[in-house]
Structure to design on (778 residues):
């Protein structure tokens, strides 16, 4: 009889609204990924128009922005992790000869790519969302469309390709610095012989493969999530700020979730041999 | 030979970084001075605490759960090879409580709350709302900054404590699902090997991280220039500065408390 | 040239346009007026194909383009120029790069592009500013650079979203002089949105009045002040008493 909906109906509606919003956002996110992949084919397929030098310019921008940042943060965290690992090993086993091997395995197959990508999610992700978001709110994306240019092809495709290449490159650098800083800590604070620590023969191809797969996946995920956040920006400076914030959290979380999925997959594949 | 341009560029970078570090130090001083005597706008503090906690609890809990699970997965090969299932909880718990937990939760908090704070203060700055406060003889530091700094510091510490718990649960769940280690083994592995010291080591860090995130995010917010583009750039600078501060503080605290 | 048939637009649960039917013949100059947030900008963006209509049809030169994909719309849009409310100058290009962008995207060689950009910049009074960044221009100069970009590819239809908002009265007159001269020379169709009625009627021949997402009035520009609709009369005269809701 009454016009107002009953309590369960209202509760369902309150629960349903965020679910519907999340489902729509997920759909849009996939749309951005598929649009970008299609954009690569459009731009680099037969007769495609690719903006000249755009990928190189983006690679330079990412490298220039993040080189020192990644080097400093990964160096410090390498020292800290080694320090904590040595403390734990000396308490648990009382023998530090295994520490280098375990550290190398972790740096190559997980910490190197994942922590580098966490830093890039902050640096590169926020940058992409801020750029594309402010172009969206100042109608520059509409202006591109009026000139027959798809914003995803023109803006996101070069960033996507550049991000994959640079994430791999910076991961190699970050992992090397992390490992070097860790070795230095083990030597100076715990007297671990650098010769037993730095033994390149200990690197297993499957660790390298796993690390590489992770770096490529993160490198692809960060611009997609951030570009999606930038393209959703509305309003003025609040909208751009919101998009940038969402990009940092979204791409950081994407890195952690992908890390988990890939690590569990690798463990399932290799078991105790990993 | 290094070109003159490279040197100029490096010099300009160094000056810019120095200016920012100086600016943040100056703001730290202003915040501390505003706290002496501690005249606090309690309502504003509670409002900020509620807002920040509400906004970041889901993402922090999710991150912590995955972080705990990840550490189990990472220690799994070693544990499997040694056949020492009783070590799995210790290895994961130790890494999560001391390092991975505070760092990942700090980074997420910086992205969610710190960045949002920069965007908010930045928007207020470009729309001249801060000048509006000054025109009413209201000190923006005391009225806007201090409650936010305190709220972030308290909230990150609280979230890290909650996150630690969630991470240990995550570790136990993943150990059960992936490694077939039962709950009891995990529980005793935590209880017998982890000390309160491991837990507090991480909590001290979260206090420092909270202060660093708060001060950098407020600083870059109130120094925004140039409209919507400037706000985006400031948010970017704030999260980067917070990440660097977290890593540096982590290093110094680890060594200082060893 | 362009026709809207019973167009409605809904975005995020809000109704922005409702039952809009409008035909703009080739060579016409149509002004769109109305209070803030009435749906004027949405109307021109629908005409440009930037916002897809939720209901109704968009017909350009006798072809129904409703629901076309971005790729399919590209050749249609190549015949339309647009000046955006916020200028929308690309901040990664200088003024010459901005003005030449629509032609460069069609693969025009750089040596053929240069003279055309220069000719257009001279026409809008921006000669000498070609290597400046958009951020170095004043509001009026940005509008003129936007007009140059909108018209460089000799479009058959030009859409102007607030060509004079935020400009001083002298600059406003200059912009309308420029639009008049441009369209007298090219004969292109024009649709101009503006809140500045006095300036607008010196350029357009016909006017539509948009109110709460609907077309409330359609008529010649010359007799706007004596329009039979009290809404329009109040809006044009700026009277405080009347049927308009604040």
């Amino acid at each position: 009889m009454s016009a107002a909906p009953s309590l369960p109906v209202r509760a369902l509606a309150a629960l349903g609204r965020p679910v519907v919003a999340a489902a729509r956002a997920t759909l849009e996110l996939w749309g951005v990924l598929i649009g970008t992949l299609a954009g690569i084919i459009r731009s680099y397929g037969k007769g495609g128009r690719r903006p000249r030098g755009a990928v190189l310019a983006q690679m330079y921008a990412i490298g220039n922005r993040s080189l020192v940042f990644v080097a400093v943060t990964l160096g410090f965290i390498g020292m800290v992790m080694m320090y904590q690992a040595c403390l734990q090993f000396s308490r648990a086993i009382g023998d530090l000869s295994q520490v280098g091997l375990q550290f190398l395995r972790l740096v190559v197959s997980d910490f190197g790519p994942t922590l580098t990508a966490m830093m890039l999610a902050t640096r590169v992700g926020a940058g992409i969302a801020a750029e594309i978001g402010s172009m969206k709110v100042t109608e520059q994306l509409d202006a591109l469309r009026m000139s027959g240019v798809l914003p995803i092809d023109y803006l996101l495709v070069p960033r996507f390709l550049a991000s994959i290449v640079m994430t791999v490159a910076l991961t190699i650098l970050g992992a090397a610095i992390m490992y070097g800083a860790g070795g230095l800590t083990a030597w100076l604070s715990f007297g671990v012989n650098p010769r037993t620590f730095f033994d390149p023969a200990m690197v297993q191809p499957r660790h390298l493969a796993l690390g590489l797969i992770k770096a490529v996946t993160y490198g692809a995920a960060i611009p997609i999530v951030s570009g999606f956040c930038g393209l959703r920006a509305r309003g003025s400076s609040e909208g751009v700020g919101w998009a940038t914030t969402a990009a940092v959290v979204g791409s950081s979380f994407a890195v952690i979730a992908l890390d988990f999925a890939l690590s569990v997959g690798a463990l399932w594949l290799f078991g105790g041999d990993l | 030979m290094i070109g003159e341009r490279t040197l100029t560029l490096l010099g300009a970078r160094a000056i810019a970084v120095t200016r920012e570090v100086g600016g943040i130090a100056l703001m730290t001083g202003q915040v501390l001075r505003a706290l002496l005597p501690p005249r606090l706008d309690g309502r504003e503090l509670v409002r900020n605490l509620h807002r920040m906690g509400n906004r970041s609890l889901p993402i922090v809990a999710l991150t912590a759960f995955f972080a705990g699970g990840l550490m189990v997965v990472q220690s799994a090969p070693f544990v499997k090879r040694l056949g020492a299932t009783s070590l799995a909880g210790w290895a994961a718990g130790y890494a999560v409580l001391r390092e991975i937990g505070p760092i990942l939760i700090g980074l997420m908090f910086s992205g969610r709350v710190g960045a949002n704070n920069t965007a908010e203060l930045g928007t207020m700055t470009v729309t001249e709302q801060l000048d509006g406060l000054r025109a009413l003889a209201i000190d923006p530091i005391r009225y806007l900054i201090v409650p936010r700094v305190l709220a972030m510091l308290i909230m990150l510490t609280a979230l890290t404590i909650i996150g630690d718990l969630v991470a240990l649960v995550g570790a136990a769940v993943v150990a059960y699902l992936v490694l077939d280690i039962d709950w009891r083994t995990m529980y005793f592995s935590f209880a017998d090997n982890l000390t309160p010291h491991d837990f507090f080591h991480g909590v001290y860090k979260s206090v420092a991280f909270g202060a660093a995130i708060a001060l950098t995010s407020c600083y870059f917010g109130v120094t925004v220039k140039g409209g919507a583009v400037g706000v985006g750039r400031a948010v970017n600078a704030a999260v980067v500065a917070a990440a660097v501060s977290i890593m540096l503080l982590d290093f110094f605290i680890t060594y200082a408390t060893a | 040239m362009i026709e809207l048939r019973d167009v409605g637009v809904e975005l995020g649960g809000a109704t922005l346009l409702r039952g809009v039917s409008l035909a703009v013949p080739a060579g016409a100059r149509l002004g769109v007026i109305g209070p803030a947030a009435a749906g004027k900008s949405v109307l021109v963006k629908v005409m440009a194909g930037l916002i897809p209509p939720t209901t109704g049809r968009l017909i350009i030169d006798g072809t129904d383009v409703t629901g076309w994909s971005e790729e399919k719309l590209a050749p249609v849009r190549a015949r339309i120029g647009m000046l955006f409310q916020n200028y929308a100058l690309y901040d990664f290009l200088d003024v010459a790069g901005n003005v030449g962008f629509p032609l460069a995207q069609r693969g025009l060689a750089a040596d053929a592009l240069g003279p055309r950009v220069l000719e257009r910049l001279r026409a809008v009074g921006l000669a000498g500013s070609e290597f400046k960044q958009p951020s170095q221009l004043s509001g009026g100069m940005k509008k003129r650079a936007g007009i140059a970009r909108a018209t460089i590819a000799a479009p058959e239809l030009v859409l102007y979203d607030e060509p004079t908002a935020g400009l001083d009265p002298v600059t406003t007159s200059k912009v309308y002089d420029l639009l008049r001269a441009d369209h007298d020379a090219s004969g292109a169709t024009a649709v101009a949105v503006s809140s500045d009625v006095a300036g607008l009627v010196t350029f357009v021949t016909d006017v539509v009045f948009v109110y709460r997402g609907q077309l409330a009035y359609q008529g010649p520009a010359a007799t706007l002040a004596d329009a039979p609709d009290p809404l329009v009369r109040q809006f044009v005269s700026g009277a405080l008493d009347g049927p308009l809701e604040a």
